[in-house]
Amino acid sequence: MPWMNPLARIRDAWQGQKARDKDLRNLVSNLPYEGLDKMKQPNRHFPSNGIKTTKYTVLSFLPMNLFEQFHRLANLYFVGLAILNFVPVVQAFQPEVALIPICVILALTAIKDAWEDFRRYKSDKKLNGMPCLVYSSPADLLLLYTSDPNGVCLIETANLDGETNLKQRRAVPGVCVTHPEFEPDSLTGIVVCEKPNNNLNHFKCYVEKLDKEKVGAGIVNLLLRGCTVRNTDYAIGFVVYAGHETKSMLNNNGPRYKRSRLEQRLNIDVFFCIILLFTMCIIGSLGHYLWLVSMPSMPIYFFPQSNGDMDTPSLSSFYKFFSMIILLQVLIPISLYVSIELVKIGQIYFITNDLDLYDEESDTTVQCKALNITEDLGQIQYIFSDKTGTLTENKMVFRRCSIMGTEYPHKENAVRLAVINKPDEDEDVLFSQTRQTPPTAKPGWSVDSEDSSSQEKQSERRRSKGNINSDVAFSSPLETEIIPDQKLLQQIRGTEKIDAYLDFFLALAICNTVVVSMATEKRPRTSDFEQNIQSNPLDTWSSLVKRAGSVRETLSSWTRSRARTTSEASDIGLTIQGQPGDPAGVQTCSLHVPRIAPLQDTTPVVSTDKFCYEAESPDEAALVHAAKAYGFILLSRTPDSVMVRLPSGAQLTFEVLDTLTFDSNRKRMSVLVRHPITRQYILYTKGADYSIMELLGTPYGEKLQKAIASDTQQHLDCYAKEGLRTLCITKKVLSDSEYESWAVTRQQALSAMDNREKLIMESAVQIETNLCLLGATGVEDRLQDSVPDTIMALREAGIQVWVLTGDKPETAVNIGYACRLLEQEDLVINMSCTNKVTCISILDCTLEEVRRYSDDPRNVDTTPDISLVIDGRTLTMAMSPDLRDRFVDLAKRCRSVLCCRVTPLQKSQVVKLIREKLKVMTLAVGDGANDVNMIQAADIGVGISGQEGMQAVMASDFAISRFKHLKKLLLVHGHWCYSRLANMIIYFFYKNAANVNLLFWYQFFCGFTATAMLDHWLLIFFNLIFTSAPPVMFGIMDRDVSAEMLLGLPELYRTGQGKGEYSFLTFWISMLDAFYQSLVAFFIPYYTYRGSDIDIFAFGTPLNTISLFTILLHLSIEIKAWTVVHAVFILGSVALYFIITLAYGVMYLNNSGYWHLQAQMVDPMFYLVCFISTVVALLPRYLFHVLKNSIAPSPIVQARHLDTLEPSTRDQWIKEWRSFRGGVQDKTSDVSIPPSPSLESFADDFIMDDDFTLNVMTDKNHRPVSF
């Protein structure tokens, strides 16, 4: 780089910072500036594409790592003491010895950090060195050109959000020359984009051409770094973000750090230890002062100052205060933090290698992403769960539909699903078998050719299982195979209302973002793709119908003024009919073509079974497969067109003018197309009933439209009560002028940089009015395996379960009963209101009744089985500042809460409210992007790696594949992790206090001079080597109760909730026990050797030995499940103590402690003193355990006793215990899902008025009763 004035460099750097900080960024092509030096490059102020995720360099590692480690106050504390020990006047022992513990801790942590950073360095080197066949390395690209003639690029974003379904990205049109070939130099405009951010689903940009025309671009035009291009030969783009500014790098925040509740409690107890240490040091300082004052003259072994004067007693006692701190510093357990990290690593290893938490279908096991909160899994009090994909399979199965007010129940399909529900049936075999029967149904829904044998079909199915669609989401046979309703088939064959039926199924086929690809090969170009279409599986049925003469060859024709349109219609055998005065402009097409009409192509066709529908949601996939079952097959989709095949075999290619994507505010999506025959602008919309019904117009006349809407709403209510997910399907025909006016508004919104989202939503709302209702759909999302059992187990464990869902209340309530969140005997409070005054009245009334129940003397020891159902609108009012306390008071008295129609923001607000108001440990579990806020708001977030990508998993602390795994994760591993770590921490405090108190008691006999009766090296070795490993093994491998008992008796989980085993009381009991044991370990040898001629180190040796035996045997009493590992480590520690002490005595010949242990070991008194002292020291704790476990055994002790019984006897005892305690195992076989209301016997089970609903449902039919 050429020399540059330093001031110019500073000015350029300042300008670069200003350019990077701007909300809008102007970028131009670098190609015209190639060959120039960097200072002349127009985009030089923005980062290059190289990334660096390492924290250190070779030179900066040591200072930076030490700086980071000294952020931990404990490290600063011990370093300060080590430095203080270098001051001669306060020196307690050799300065070098004081440095050993903290140096070992810092070195171990530094080695771990260096290894992690080296792994990051190798990853960066590999990524930065990836070969690329583009103009620059991978970055966030504004797509300009692709190998597809339509400018389409299919990508997979699994590396970013875990979604494996293909997504479309399209080139920005008209900004550079692309024909006959792409010319990069033709990009002469300015690309204006927003400041880099981490939102993977949002991007604002426009390209300003030389003529000042602005072309808007969004996320659909952006190729993100980390995504994989599929079925596209090449893609060319303009770099908008590079290096660390790419969205993938901005989302790479590294491992999250959370402080567990146990760690918070630990810090409090460390503070208590500091207070205790200072108290002991003050006692030592005062004792030293009194000792000096009481002496007639200064002892001869006190050295004078340099001027020959002696320190005064006051100054000497002041110095001894700091010397005592150095001597007794081990009271603060420096090695505890490292031990905790080692224990958590071991716990995570056992969790991730648990085969019961492995899901064979997805080939995934549990992931632990937050390494420091494993013990919090054992203290959960509230669980907040999503429904779809979390409690349910997220496999959407088309069940029922309503078209123009007529309901089609699809009974044959219901029978098929009922057979699949049998646990011993294989899904793929069942689908192969159902194709054989009933014979009459085969032409209507079989997807195999008629001449194939059943054996060939079954073998083909087995061969294709997990292969053809193994990488395609929402493509299991359960979701793709649908048996059409015979009544609806006959209706389609008829001639009445054929326009609405055609539009209904066309809406199902095209009103989505589904991408069509081939299952066994790369997706060909669209021009070739359209020539390889096979006849529909309903062709056979159509031909039979035609031969029978049950369908007219053509409908009566309607003469149009435009001859071109008539010609188009006759070319494909479609006849248009309608009335010029039709208020909706509704014009229809026959579903069948004349037998004389030729097909569009005569080339060999490809089976439609080889189509793959890449959907972004399971609902879209279910509706597309439903349309396919009736012969409306989605053949291809490009940014500008969508091709659909009709049951007759005719193909319609609709011009796609715009797609109004779904958002959480509108609760609907629309696609605006131009009909290939009528040339009309048609808007197809689907969405939630409450967002659609209020937008309906009266295209069929006010009376008819109201009747259709009323009947459809009744059907929707029935679907919801059956637990089905519902959608309304509508249509709207726009005039030419109406479309042209709206298109201008839409383009302005798309090219805007300020308030783009608001303008885009307003443009969508503007056109989505006066809709024509076509019908509704009901899709089933089945519960996952073992969900009811898991929820009941969690509730028995003392955990309150809340379900937060966006579904309708009726749907949510039905699922609530099915998953046993709600019970038949529950008092269910259903809250729904439209104004705040009513909400206040409901809360006050309900709280009064609940409190009255609790205050009744007859209900002192009982808990009311109360459940609350509340919708999102009421929830917003209930969480207002003046009502939230009353709402929380009511909610905490409920056994379960079901929140319906809630938004992602409301989910997180509910979690925060309960966590902050009740001070409880919360866990949130979900599977989709809409659950991320809730997951991050809870103390522990659990993501389920379902079918909607990995956004929830990426934001979570733990990831599982099935909801049922939550049972063992919490009840077994959570309990073990908390119990092990809590007991290990208490033991660590006890161990250090018991050992350091020996030094404190000795001060009373040495004038509080801060001297030790042991060699300083042995003091260091005691905590660093002799007693370090057994507690770690205790924390990793101890097991108070077996997994079978913890799963069989979920009540045992309650021992960890609230204060749990590690509380203020248990801490101080252990500290008092440590003081008692240290007194015994010191004074029994003291009085034994009193008056003898042994020296100070000969006296200290039995003290150290007794302390070792007492501490290790104390641990032996606390161990609940002995293993070979425990025995090896404890015996190994004893052996290591004797070996090192003996070797140390031999090596240091000039040391005053030479040969002391060897001399003690030949004296029988040594063994007698050690034995008696150890027994007396441990006797109180041992007797306490014996009496407690015999007179008042805890549930854990009782469960441990049951663990020793034979399996059959143990299982019988568990059943009796659970029955006595109100368990659910006796009711499981009797539980049944509430009967779904039929359309013929529809009854409104909810008392509704214009203001509110407050229902209390008690009996199994959920009939509401008043208070």
From TrEMBL:
<dbReference type="Pfam" id="PF16212">
    <property type="entry name" value="PhoLip_ATPase_C"/>
</dbReference>
<dbReference type="InterPro" id="IPR008250">
    <property type="entry name" value="ATPase_P-typ_transduc_dom_A_sf"/>
</dbReference>
<feature type="binding site">
    <location>
        <position position="807"/>
    </location>
    <ligand>
        <name>ATP</name>
    </ligand>
</feature>
<protein>
    <recommendedName>
        <fullName>Phospholipid-transporting ATPase</fullName>
        <ecNumber>7.6.2.1</ecNumber>
    </recommendedName>
</protein>
<dbReference type="InterPro" id="IPR032630">
    <property type="entry name" value="P_typ_ATPase_c"/>
</dbReference>
<feature type="binding site">
    <location>
        <position position="386"/>
    </location>
    <ligand>
        <name>Mg(2+)</name>
    </ligand>
</feature>
<keyword id="KW-0472">Membrane</keyword>
<feature type="binding site">
    <location>
        <position position="927"/>
    </location>
    <ligand>
        <name>Mg(2+)</name>
    </ligand>
</feature>
<dbReference type="GO" id="GO:0005524">
    <property type="term" value="F:ATP binding"/>
</dbReference>
<feature type="transmembrane region" description="Helical">
    <location>
        <begin position="1165"/>
        <end position="1184"/>
    </location>
</feature>
<feature type="binding site">
    <location>
        <position position="388"/>
    </location>
    <ligand>
        <name>Mg(2+)</name>
    </ligand>
</feature>
<keyword id="KW-1133">Transmembrane helix</keyword>
<feature type="binding site">
    <location>
        <position position="662"/>
    </location>
    <ligand>
        <name>ATP</name>
    </ligand>
</feature>
<keyword id="KW-0479">Metal-binding</keyword>
<feature type="binding site">
    <location>
        <position position="620"/>
    </location>
    <ligand>
        <name>ATP</name>
    </ligand>
</feature>
<dbReference type="InterPro" id="IPR023214">
    <property type="entry name" value="HAD_sf"/>
</dbReference>
<dbReference type="InterPro" id="IPR018303">
    <property type="entry name" value="ATPase_P-typ_P_site"/>
</dbReference>
<keyword id="KW-0547">Nucleotide-binding</keyword>
<dbReference type="InterPro" id="IPR001757">
    <property type="entry name" value="P_typ_ATPase"/>
</dbReference>
<feature type="transmembrane region" description="Helical">
    <location>
        <begin position="1002"/>
        <end position="1026"/>
    </location>
</feature>
<feature type="binding site">
    <location>
        <position position="806"/>
    </location>
    <ligand>
        <name>ATP</name>
    </ligand>
</feature>
<feature type="binding site">
    <location>
        <position position="901"/>
    </location>
    <ligand>
        <name>ATP</name>
    </ligand>
</feature>
<feature type="transmembrane region" description="Helical">
    <location>
        <begin position="73"/>
        <end position="91"/>
    </location>
</feature>
<dbReference type="InterPro" id="IPR044492">
    <property type="entry name" value="P_typ_ATPase_HD_dom"/>
</dbReference>
<feature type="binding site">
    <location>
        <position position="930"/>
    </location>
    <ligand>
        <name>ATP</name>
    </ligand>
</feature>
<feature type="active site" description="4-aspartylphosphate intermediate">
    <location>
        <position position="386"/>
    </location>
</feature>
<dbReference type="Pfam" id="PF13246">
    <property type="entry name" value="Cation_ATPase"/>
</dbReference>
<feature type="transmembrane region" description="Helical">
    <location>
        <begin position="318"/>
        <end position="340"/>
    </location>
</feature>
<dbReference type="InterPro" id="IPR032631">
    <property type="entry name" value="P-type_ATPase_N"/>
</dbReference>
<feature type="binding site">
    <location>
        <position position="388"/>
    </location>
    <ligand>
        <name>ATP</name>
    </ligand>
</feature>
<feature type="binding site">
    <location>
        <position position="686"/>
    </location>
    <ligand>
        <name>ATP</name>
    </ligand>
</feature>
<feature type="transmembrane region" description="Helical">
    <location>
        <begin position="97"/>
        <end position="115"/>
    </location>
</feature>
<feature type="transmembrane region" description="Helical">
    <location>
        <begin position="1062"/>
        <end position="1084"/>
    </location>
</feature>
<feature type="domain" description="P-type ATPase N-terminal">
    <location>
        <begin position="41"/>
        <end position="97"/>
    </location>
</feature>
<dbReference type="GO" id="GO:0005886">
    <property type="term" value="C:plasma membrane"/>
</dbReference>
<feature type="transmembrane region" description="Helical">
    <location>
        <begin position="266"/>
        <end position="291"/>
    </location>
</feature>
<dbReference type="GO" id="GO:0016887">
    <property type="term" value="F:ATP hydrolysis activity"/>
</dbReference>
<comment type="similarity">
    <text>Belongs to the cation transport ATPase (P-type) (TC 3.A.3) family. Type IV subfamily.</text>
</comment>
<dbReference type="GO" id="GO:0000287">
    <property type="term" value="F:magnesium ion binding"/>
</dbReference>
<dbReference type="GO" id="GO:0045332">
    <property type="term" value="P:phospholipid translocation"/>
</dbReference>
<dbReference type="Pfam" id="PF16209">
    <property type="entry name" value="PhoLip_ATPase_N"/>
</dbReference>
<dbReference type="GO" id="GO:0005789">
    <property type="term" value="C:endoplasmic reticulum membrane"/>
</dbReference>
